[in-house]
Structure formats: C-alpha cells, structure tokens
C-alpha cells in the first residue's frame, strides 16, 4: 500500500499497516495489509491479517484486500445496490484470487491463510463483511458504536480465515449508521474495543478524537497515512500487542468536494 | 513547537492480555524422596524465576500446582507469575495419579469458566504431569482409569487443553503412553536434566504467551541431542 492519501469528493480514507514488535525482532516483514477505493458516493475499505502460521500469510492478506476492494468497487460502479451480496461476492472473489495464486505457485491455499474485514460506507450507512478477528467501529453523530467484533474462537490464538473451505459459513455481515468507520486487525483492535463485564464495548476515548483529528489534519494538509503509521508505531500502541497492526479510517468531509 | 501527534490526542487504553492457565501435576510420592524432590523444588524455582523475567509471561501465565502423594492437593491455585511463590514440596505417600489428573482437568475447566465470566480471552491451557512411578489409585480398565482416559483423550480431542506427561527414573512409561493423548508421546527425563526441562517449560510458556492469532507454536524439540528428554519405546 503506497503511503499516499486517497481523496475523492467528500470521502476520505487513510490507514497504515506496521510490523509488530515480534516481527521486527525476528526480522519478518509485516503480514497485515489494507486497501481502499473511493467512489463518488461510496467508500470501500478492507483490512487483513495474514497468519504467521501460514508461510505466505502476508501475500494472502495482500491479495485479499486488493482484490476484494477492487471487485466490490467494480460491482458498485456497475449499479449493484445490494451491498450485502456485493460484499459476499467480493470476498469470495478475493478468496478465488488467493486460490489462483496458490495454484499458479503450486502452493496449498492454507499457506496463504488470512483474515478479512471489509466495509462499504455509503450515504445510507455502512455494511461490513468479516471473517476472523479484528474489529470495525463506527461513529454516527459523534457516538461510537460496535459494528463488527472478533469472530467467535475458543482460544486467544485461534481465528477463522478466508482461505478455509467453509469461509462462507464464517462470514458475518453487519449493518449500521455511520459518518465514519474505523477498521483494525487484531494487533490494535484493543484500542477500538474493550471487554467490559464479558462483552465488547467500543472505546470512545480512542475512536472519537482519532476521527476528529484526522478530519482536522485534512484541512492542514497533513499526510494522514503517515500520521496513522506514527500512531501505530508509538510505544503505547505497541504495548497493546506484539502483533502486526493495521488501522484504516474512512470518513466524510462536510461540504464541497475536496 | 511541532505539530501535535495522534498519540498525544487519542486515549490509548491499557492492554487486556489473554491468559494461559497452566497446571503442573507433580508426583510427591515417597519414591520421589531425596534428590528427586530436591531437583523438582529447584526446578519450580527456576521456572518461576525465568517466567518472572518475561514481561508477557508475567501478564499472561496463570500457574497452578497439584501434587499427588499423601493425597491429592492443590498446593497452589491459579496465580499470576508475579505473585507466584514456588512451593517447597515434601515427598511421602502413595501415587494417586488418577485423582490428580481428574483434579487438574477440573481446575482447568473452572478457570476457563472464570475467564469467560470476567470476559478475559485465553489460550488453550496446559496440563503438565511429572511422575517417577505408576498410579496406585487406578488400574487399567477400572472406573477411575476409564474416567482419566476419557478426560485426557476426550479433553485433547475437544481442544480443551494440552496434556504433557513426563516420566522420571522408574516411571511406568507404558502406562503413561496409554494415558497420554494420541500423538503426544510421553517423554522420559534424561538423568540430571531437571533444570533443562524446567527451562524448556518456561521457554515454551513464554512462546505461548507471545503467540499470535492462528499461530502453530513450534516448541524447541526436547528430545534433540541437547534436549532434556528421550522417547522410550
């Protein structure tokens, strides 16, 4: 993902993936990925976490996000207004691209295992498709809400993956109202969502000022991707987890196209 | 003055660490008297000291100790590493291994229920059995034996925990193999390798506590030339 900031009309999308401290220590590149497509009246964001246990998990994550946002954007441009089916089809196509890569490289698809979270923001609200862990939180009229939480897993080091045969049965679709969406892989999901009395709740003190500041930075001409990468590389974020971290944010700038 | 950074503006919460419940099920029967119980006690101190040096293990490992000798006793309930005080074990009595294993399975399930109640994520727990003999409270085929086999084999099959068995000295490895889950061959401790074994356990728990989603942990091979264990066929 080039570190340029994407702009189109009133939608803004920005984000970063950074290697976790354990990957840095072991000299393993970041195996998270994110991608976005901005359309005139919609914004599509995907984040993915390639599994360390999979030899080419990072490649799987990269293919998953780049293919799925592109295919979703093509379908949206072609007039597909059923966002739920559009997301399901795009994620399925993302998996197919991973499978094609596996076949051409003579790999088992499990060696490209990855999670995938994809959100489509339109003036009608947001729809999220999610397989595995990670989280998506929304802001609507200044209030933070959970849109999608980590998928059910018995243990902390287990997750569902897009590359599994039964991926579709693991797919969770969520809908909500949103002015802004914040998507994270598991490495930094702990900043967006917290456990309270056994249940997840959104963590407003992180999410709300994050979006407000990014909105402000647009006006100041700051590079939003760099700002997010710096945040993820800070020692306090690193304390959350030694995993790779990806944070992607989408929002609208009120008023005229930027 | 430079521009304000995001990290100065947003509130980054304290991490909520997943926990890993680990139970040591230790033989303290009379046959462990002398050097063996001294080595075991020293091993527990080594394990505690090593884990206390590991920042993540301190936050994530909850350690419990069950002994079987003069009865079955939970000598240390689950305790975080920073507060864990290694017990000074004394040898004596028979070898009620069956009851001790069932107790370990019970406390692991109880601990997981507590994690779920308070909403703490957790790793698959570990049960680590060390014995120098054979059970005196069950015989192959009797009711306790069947319960133990069902608990261990069924528990592993259902991913409830990981069960490791380690034999020392005159341990009945044939029985240990039958108690152990499929694919988890019990290991025999090489003579005088107690410290190495507890260091391996410490390293393994450190690795687990730093494992990321979906990762298959490749533990250091304990039966390699430098390892502490052998597979006795």
Question: Overview of this structure, please?
Answer:
- The complex is a heterodimer of chains A (258) and B (233).
- Chain A has helices spanning 21-25, 57-77, 83-104, 167-170, 186-192, 204-220, 224-232, 235-238, and strands spanning 6-8, 11-18, 32-39, 42-49, 116-122, 125-131, 135-140, 143-148, 172-176, 180-184, 193-196, 199-202, 245-252.
- Chain A has one domain (6-252): PPM-type phosphatase domain (Phosphatase 2c, domain 1).
- In chain A, helix 2 (57-77) packs across helix 3 (83-104).
- Chain A is of the alpha+beta class and 258 residues long.
- In chain A, the strands form three sheets. Chain A has a six-stranded antiparallel beta sheet. In chain A, strands 3-4-5-6-9 form a five-stranded antiparallel beta sheet.
- The two termini of chain A are 22 Å apart.
- Chain A has eight helices and 13 strands.
- In chain A, strand 5 (116-122) and strand 6 (125-131) form a beta hairpin.
- The radius of gyration of chain A is 17 Å and the shape is globular.
- In chain B, strands 3-2-1-4-5-6-7 form a seven-stranded mixed beta sheet.
- Helix content of chain B is 38%, strand content 19%.
- In chain B, helix 2 (35-52) runs parallel beside helix 7.
- Chain B starts with 5 loop residues before the first helix and ends with a strand.
- Chain B has helices spanning 6-9, 35-52, 55-60, 97-118, 143-157, 173-179, 194-209; strands at 20-27, 61-69, 71-80, 126-131, 162-167, 187-189, 229-230.
- Chain B has a single domain (17-211, 225-230), classed as Rossmann fold, CATH 3.40.50.
- With 233 residues, chain B is an alpha/beta fold.
- Chain A binds chain B through residues 20, 22, 49, 51-54, 113, 115, 132-133, 154-159, 161, 186-187, 190-191, 194-199, 203, 205-206, 209-210, 213-214, 220, 222, 227-228, 230-231, 234, 236-237, 239-243, and chain B through 3, 5-7, 9-16, 18, 56, 116-124, 159, 208, 210-216.
